[in-house]
């Protein structure tokens, strides 16, 4: 919300976007990486979440200069073009959209590496299920598979608004993406979002096709 505060406290610039909560988590991880690296310590995220009005990250540390160097290499930037909707992750901050050439403002530096340890995540989820920690189990489940995707996402409601079409279901869009060879999942850190390796243009086209093929309800 306040980029100047994020820069002062965490050494990173935040931006409004369709994936701003994920960006916030990645800014926090970047800050942890930077502080740890100053003491020749590397970080390894285990899990993270955005719940209500707070963020939380869990990580392991490894004390060695080599580990710190590996962590620092997992730092970059993410940008969303407010003109065409395309998102990009890069090692250096972009100033122009690679798709349409319009000016963009990148968020970062951010942690662009993985957010979870799959083995620990699965064990924690089984434990939460066994102990009937329902909310914890649900949060852990939303993180499964998140590391297969870039550090950004698309908001289906925003896409529909831009296209001036009716809302579409995440499930139907995911099914259409799958038929085109793209995997996808719900964005675990935002209220409405889709993570996929498809471009914005490809995703928007599938959203449009999904909307046009959806059954229409008529009142008599």
Radius of gyration: 19 Å
Class from helix and strand fractions: alpha+beta
Q: How much helix, percentage-wise, in residues?
A: 40-55%
Strand order of the largest sheet: 4-3-5
Beta-strand segment tally: 7
Low-confidence stretches: none
SS field, number of helical segments = 8
Strand content: 15-25%
Mean pLDDT, to the nearest integer, reads 93
Cα separation of the termini: 46 Å
- The helix/strand order is HHEEHEEEHHHHEEH
Largest sheet: 3 strands, antiparallel
Structural shape: globular
SSE layout and pairings?
Elements: H1 3-10, H2 20-37, E1 41-51, E2 54-63, H3 65-72, E3 75-80, E4 87-90, E5 107-111, H4 118-130, H5 134-143, H6 156-163, H7 170-179, E6 184-186, E7 194-196, H8 200-213
Antiparallel strand pairs: 1-2, 3-4, 3-5, 6-7
Helix pairs in contact: 2-3, 4-5, 7-8
Structure description:
The structure is a single chain. β1 (41-51) and β2 form a beta hairpin. This protein is globular. A three-stranded antiparallel sheet has the order 4-3-5. It has eight helices and seven strands, in the order ααββαβββααααββα. It is α+β, with helices and mostly antiparallel strands and 220 residues long. The model has no long low-confidence stretch (mean pLDDT 93). The longest helix has 18 residues, at 20-37. The chain has helices at residues 3-10, 20-37, 65-72, 118-130, 134-143, 156-163, 170-179, 200-213; strands at residues 41-51, 54-63, 75-80, 87-90, 107-111, 184-186, 194-196.
């Amino acid at each position: 919300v306040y980029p100047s505060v994020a820069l002062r406290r965490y050494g990173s610039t935040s931006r409004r976007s369709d994936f701003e909560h994920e960006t916030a988590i990645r800014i926090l991880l970047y800050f942890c990486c930077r502080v740890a690296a100053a003491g020749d310590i590397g970080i390894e995220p285990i899990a993270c979440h955005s719940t209500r009005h707070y963020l939380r990250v869990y990580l392991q540390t490894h004390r060695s200069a080599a580990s710190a160097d590996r962590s620092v290499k997992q730092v970059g930037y993410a940008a969303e073009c407010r003109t065409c909707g395309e998102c990009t992750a890069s090692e250096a901050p972009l100033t122009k959209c690679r798709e349409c050439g319009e000016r963009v403002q990148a968020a970062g530096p951010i942690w662009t590496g993985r957010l979870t340890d799959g083995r620990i995540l699965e064990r924690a989820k089984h434990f939460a299920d066994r102990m009937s920690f329902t909310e914890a189990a649900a949060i852990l489940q939303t993180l499964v598979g998140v590391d297969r995707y870039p550090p950004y996402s698309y908001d289906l409601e925003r896409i529909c608004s831009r296209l001036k079409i009716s809302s579409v279901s995440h499930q139907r869009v995911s099914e259409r993406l799958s038929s085109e060879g793209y995997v996808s999942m719900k964005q675990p850190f935002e209220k409405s979002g889709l993570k996929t390796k498809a471009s914005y243009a490809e995703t928007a086209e599938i959203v449009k096709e999904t909307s046009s093929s959806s059954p229409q309800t008529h009142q008599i």
